[in-house]
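Listing 4. Sequential folding, example run.
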Amino acid sequence: MTSPATLTATALARPARAPGSVLALIVLGAGCLLPFAGASPLLLSLLVQAIIGAMLATGVGFLVRQNGMVSFGHALFFGLGGYVLGVPLAHGLLPPEVAVLLALVVPALLAFLLGLVITRIPGVAFSMLSLACAQTFYEVVLKVRTLANGDDGMSVTFPARLFGLDVGLLQDPRSMYLICWALLAAVLVGLWLFTRSPYGLLTLAIRSNEERARFIGYETVVPRAAVYALSAGVAGLAGVLATFYNGFISPDMMHWTLSGSALVMAVIGGTRAVWGPALGAVVFFFFKEIVGDATEHWPAVIGITLIVVTLCAPAGLSGLLARLFARRAA
């Protein structure tokens, strides 16, 4: 049987080159020093939100990279992480530790089950099905007020300690920044290792030529569903962190506009490198803050910026930086 590594020789999405990975490691290391460099609590709070958005965008970009599939419904898993955590705590249904664990597992499990069905249908059909699934859950949490107060959302009260740790650390900008940064680094490294694994290479081979992979004996549906579940798990983790930090859940966490924003972040950053969408998310977040303060027409400005980036840097900002870094290294 042909190995996954052989199958991926002609894959459309090739692993990021070493210079890009070195650049990502430098940035990740430097980011840890920011709280100790005199950054204000306001800046750190903005960065926490940006990193949470980076996790969501990373999940979306990873799905594009490995499966070649564009999801318009990843906000479902982001919001599900928040609701599975917040609702049991608000109603006293589960011990807090169990609620946290379920909030991390349920989004990935749901995505795997959905993926066994919808990842069979590539292209635009998959995108529309992912959007339909997300909007279905959005309508449920919007209309059923007994669940989580409908469109008004609800505050989430946490116990003083979870797993023996002070929950206050998750609501302080300085400590939460370090936690989110460390988790983002762990996610990026974990996904990067996955892309180098035999199973990761198999998913790239399936993306490149599913018919050939199936012909020589490889199962193609389960690997696609597994990638979908992994990307959803990252989005769910982002939702859990957002709920801890904001202490609030609302249907907006599942709205399609959040999925669209995450996709824009991934395109700006580029999906060929695992870390690209995270870079795009940080750039998008601060660009939105700056432009939003200057004009009420910021969506148009962001749209124009997206067009320019796509035309000038098809591989996104990560691809552009990786090329520049490689040239200087040479």
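-- end of first protein; second protein begins --
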Amino acid sequence: MNDNYIIGIDEVGRGCLAGPIVAVAVLLKSTPEENELLTEVKDSKKLSAKKREEIFVNLQDKFIWAQAEIDNQEIDKIGIQLANCLVVNQALENLLKKINNFSGRVVADHVGGFNNYVDNTLPTGRQEKIEFFTKGETKFLSIALASILAKVYRDRLMTRQEDVYPEYNFAKHKGYGSVEHIKAILKHGTSSLHRQSFLKNIFSPRYKAGK
């Protein structure tokens, strides 16, 4: 496989109060044709939800990519930092299963503690080494595209929960800690999607008194 090929990885949902953390790994071949397709791609946080959805629909079938997710229950068991490391690694593993003899570069948005996790947990035989960059979405198109694919994929997951848990309005905030979401938790309690380890402060007497 061409050494100019590059895999970009990004995750979304790390700070949410509900739902999974999701990572996407995507392969770019750095061809003129691909670059033409990527003219509107940038960090997902700098795009409107409508624009992210449009890019997702237009590009999802034009690139080789894979996602991974870790649900809220597993996050509560192992902690968000390890979950973040695991989901990034699993997205890469899932993508490599679709690619033969990858020999390019693997880049990702910064994940704290990943090197310690790799040293202690991952098999040493794997050749693909992930390079991490702070604000990687602004430095690599592959990471920017991964951020869009991950964001839309997760947003769709959370929107589908609206029918199951209408009282939380997941379609609007996607599980993030908005004022509306926190008020719904205080009123209705938690659902099976909520990360209990993220909610301790919300249910503390001091927090309630402040609200």
